[in-house]
Every structure is written in structure tokens, then in C-alpha cells.
Design brief:
homodimer, about 325 residues, alpha/beta, 7 strands, 7-stranded parallel beta sheet, 3 domains, Rossmann fold, 12 helices, disordered C terminus
């Protein structure tokens, strides 16, 4: 074991915010020492409650996360927030946009906020997010909130990392609200109708209840519907209570453990995929080679299906060492 | 070559809708003969114009795609539509929801509509979508429209498959509109402000123009902003003209070819990743084994980082055959 990494781990565990911040950067960038760091921190993780929040754009997720963090701070609990930002596929940088709203927590060491960018398709965003959540967990945060923008498969993968998933809806989202709700219906442990002072909140609630009456979850939990107005704080204590209730429900049964095992099933597959990709595929497919192949396929000189078969065939073959 | 597949290819090319439908199902399910089918069809592809459309939920994408398809039918062009539906991560089925709106085309063989489900993280949705688009292309469709719900990385990957990308915005999307627009700003070849009869359309247009004034695309194309009211058809002819203009721009330069090469770069990587995953990872990671590992990690008996390293180490090692 590298002893400087050991010291770093102790700094993180003692609540040193700079050490925590540096660790997250290392994990995001997959630096040489991040692997050892993660391995050591893992032993100290598993104590936080991890809450995932998702919903459509415009649902006011950031404001709600902000208010919820404030609620937990009143209970003297420490909070870590991971905010997933949409990224331009061209520049690779994070769009910081509404993160500015989070500045209300500036100066409170009890709330640690980290924005993360959506990376390219090869990046394994949900794996990185899970690693960052684990680092926050090992640093002793009582609560880790993961906030995503959007309702795509990426977001579903991310919120499924959490112990508790909250789906945020708003009144008057238009024609597609039906299909959104259907897509995320089964991942919600708690529904929030934010901006509940707007016209149409009752209708959204009725629609959720109508859907719930059609199908029961495997575990028989009926996700409660909490109405909030995040920017005034209305309904936020009730949301914290709903989270407590679901946690009690999880703890009272085997379900919490089963959910963590199911999450690890998915995550181990993703980690293996990422690692195989990094070691094997990127080695076989240099920037130069892929450029040549892409031009051949784009020019219809070569079909991509036979090409991939050929490359994979070569990957499997190895010269015997004798 | 399997001669029955040869006959199938000819049926698809002659415009037989049943043969086309059966081919797409084979590709989606990765049946044993789908690989040979794709290989043969590829030689006949490359003639369609592929247009990707994305935007936030509630932007009225389906209605707009519907109207645009109608516009091209008036020009006697044939259209294929691929609608990506959000999927429940639990059931794996497609949520058909608003696909019902598409029924206006029922009975017109010139418009072929296919809904596709978002699959699990291992599924390679954008690869499958690209294959389905290629099959529609080989079947002789003049135009292939790919419609996605949401603005996540998945959606970005999918619309980037297209020759032309259209980003659909609506007035009054709320607080997050800034961050959404920033994330997709650079992938749009054409902006549409749908529901432009609503209050705020001018403001959205001003915001797009303000963003455009801050940064210029590499190719110096300034994406036009087209205002539509999809359900009345207003602005739809203008959108078709904007698509024509961009196509002319692409054809007048090397840009169209460069874009196709860039797309193939991404796609070949993804195809290689999927194939390696299928052959190597799934073999090494049976349902049973992953269940045992997941329980060990969830119980903190084992750290996942060392575990993956160990498994990948075993994958690379092979017994010499002598």
C-alpha cells in the first residue's frame, strides 16, 4: 500500500473537504492512484443513505435538492450533492448553468456540492457517479443526493444506483407527460409534484394515483405523492418524512439488501465492460486505425459488420508463448 | 450465402413492407440470420437522407414528425420513421403512449413507422437504431426520420447518427431551458420552435440567436430557426425547405462526407464494444456468477475494484495450445 494514499484516505475520513474534493477529481479523471484510493475507501463506505432525484427538465430539481439539503442540515446531518450536468458532445465540458443556485450553501462545510459532466459514450458515467457517491459515503456524509437532468436511459441507470429514488413531476408539462410518467413510473419510490402552487397539480396527482391503481410493485410499496413548492420550502419537511418512511420500510425487510445486490449486479457488469473496453478495445482500435476504417465504411468500400467480426477475431487469437 | 436471405433482401428492396418489418424485428432481436442480412443490405444503403429530431419532453416531437412526414409524402417521397420510446427498466417493453398519434398514416404504404424501445445498458441502442435506419435506407425510403424523447447522452448519440439534426424547443419550458439549450446547442443543424403560437416563442428565438452570436460552428453553418405549430401544419413547409438548404450546404462541400466518417468512427467503436461485450464479457460473467459477486460486494465482503481486476486478468490469460 502506498502510504501517501493511506494518509489521503484518513484526511477524507476526517471530513477534510479539500481532500474529498481532490479525491473526486482523481476518480473522475481515473488517475493512476484513483484505483487504490477507491479500493481503500470502499472498506469505509456503506453508511450513507443515497437518494437519487430525477425528473423532466424544468421540474425544478436543483431548487428542490437545495431545499432538501437545507432540511437535513437542520437535523444536523451532513449532505453530499452530486449534480449531473448535460455536456456538449463537442467540447466535453460541463454546462454549469443553474449550479449557481446552489451557492446558498457556500460556507457551510456540512453541504458538499459537486457537478459532474456527462461524458462521451465510452465514459461510463453511471460507474463514475457511483464511485463518487461511494467516496462521499466513505467521507462520512450522512446523506448523498444524486440529481440528474432528463429522463433517458442514462438517468435511469444513475438513479438506480441510489437506495431511494425520487421522481419529480410538475403540473402542465404538455402532451408527452403521459409517456414520461409511464417510463419512470416503476423506478419511483417517492413521487414529488413540485411547483404544486401551479394550476394542474391535482390533475398530475390523480394521474399518478390512476396509474398506481393499475399495477402494484413487486414489493407492495405504494410510492407516496408529496407536493412541494421548492423555492418557498413548502412540502420539503413532508418529503424528508416520506424518505424516512421508505427507509423504515426498506430496513424492516430484506428489500434494502436485495436492492443493493441488484444494483451491484448492474454495476459489476458495467465496471467489467468499462475495464475490458479500456484495456482491450482501445488497444486494438487506435485513433489512426479507426479513422481509416471509418472512411472505408463511409465510402461503402467495406461493410462494417464483416469488419468488426474480423477485428474481434484477431482480438481473441493470441500467439502461444512457446 | 444463404439463398433464402438473398430472397428476403430482394423482397425488402422491392418495397415489400412485411419483409421490411420482419427484417427490423430480426435486427432488433439480433437473430442468427440478422448479421448476414445486414451485411447484404449494406451494399444497397447510402441513398436515404437520415434526419434526427430531438428535444425535451412536451416539445411535440411526434406531432411534428408526423407533419413533416406528410409534407414529404406530398412531394411523392417515401418516408421511414424510427420512434425511440422510453422503456421501463423492469419490464423491458416499449411504452407505446403517443405512438397512437401516428395512426393518421395508417394505410399509406409510403410512410413506414417503427417504434423502438430503450433497452438495458448493455443493449447498444444507438447501434441498433443505426442498423434499423440502414435497413430502411436499403429498402428504398427516400427519407428516414429518427425521433427521440429526451435530451440525455443516449439521445445525443442517436441523433448524431443522422445526416441532419433538428432540435425542437418550445416556449415556456421553465427554469432549466437554459441548460438544455446549452447541452444541445452544438448538435443542432436546424432549430425548430414548435407550439410557436404560444407566448414566449419570440423570447426563445432571441435566446437561440444570442447563443449563436457567442460561438460559431467549425463549418460556419448558422443553424436557422424555424417556427412551427405542428398540429395545424404551420411552418412545416418552411422546415422542409430548411432541410433542403442544409442538404445543399452539405453537398456543396466535403462536410457531408466528413460527417459520415465522423459518425462511422463513433459507430465502429460502439459496434466493437458491443461485440466484445457479447462474446467475452457475457461468457465470463454468467447470471449465476454475477449474482454471487454482487451479494459479496453488497455485503462488503469483497471490494468491487479488486474483483474486476481479477476477472479481467483471467480474461486476458489463455492456455498455450502446445
Amino acid at each position: 500500500m502506498n502510504s501517501s494514499i493511506g494518509i489521503w484516505v484518513e484526511e477524507i475520513r476526517s471530513g477534510n473537504v479539500r481532500a474529498l474534493s481532490r479525491a473526486i477529481t482523481a476518480v473522475e479523471n481515473r488517475t493512476a492512484d484513483s484505483h487504490e484510493l477507491l479500493r481503500l475507501l470502499f472498506a469505509h463506505s456503506g453508511r450513507s443513505r443515497v437518494v437519487g432525484l430525477t425528473g423532466s427538465p424544468g421540474a425544478g430539481k436543483s431548487t428542490l435538492v437545495d431545499a432538501l439539503a437545507g432540511q437535513y442540515r437542520k437535523r444536523e446531518q451532513t449532505v453530499g450533492i452530486i449534480a449531473i450536468d448535460p455536456t456538449s458532445p463537442f467540447t466535453g465540458g460541463a454546462i454549469l448553468g443553474d449550479r449557481i443556485r446552489m451557492q446558498s450553501h457556500t460556507g457551510d462545510a456540512g453541504t458538499f456540492i459537486r457537478s459532474m459532466a456527462t461524458r462521451g459514450a465510452l465514459g461510463g458515467l453511471s460507474s463514475t457517479t457511483a464511485d463518487v457517491a461511494m467516496v462521499m459515503d466513505a467521507s462520512g456524509r450522512d446523506l448523498v443526493l444524486i440529481e440528474t437532468v432528463g429522463v433517458g436511459q442514462d438517468e435511469v441507470d444513475i438513479v438506480r444506483l441510489a437506495d431511494i429514488t425520487i421522481v419529480i413531476l410538475v403540473p402542465g408539462m404538455g402532451d408527452d407527460v403521459q409517456s414520461i410518467k409511464a417510463g419512470i413510473m416503476e423506478i419511483a419510490d417517492i413521487f414529488v409534484i413540485n411547483k404544486a402552487d401551479r394550476e394542474g397539480a391535482e390533475r398530475v396527482e390523480r394521474e399518478i394515483k390512476a396509474m398506481q391503481s393499475l399495477s402494484m410493485r413487486h414489493d407492495n410499496w405504494v410510492p407516496p405523492v408529496v407536493k412541494t413548492v421548492a423555492y418557498t420550502g413548502a412540502g420539503v419537511p413532508e418529503l424528508a418524512t416520506a424518505i424516512d418512511d421508505y427507509e423504515t420500510f426498506l430496513d424492516s425487510s430484506e428489500l434494502g439488501r436485495q436492492r443493493r445486490i441488484a444494483n451491484w449486479r448492474n454495476r459489476l457488469r458495467e465496471m467489467l465492460r468499462d475495464e475490458v473496453l479500456r484495456r482491450i478495445v482501445e488497444g486494438a482500435f487506435s485513433e489512426e486505425a479507426v479513422g481509416v476504417y471509418a472512411a472505408q465504411v463511409a465510402g461503402h468500400e467495406r461493410d462494417p459488420y464483416s469488419l468488426i467480426e474480423e477485428i474481434v477475431g484477431k482480438l481473441g487469437r493470441q500467439e502461444p508463448q512457446c
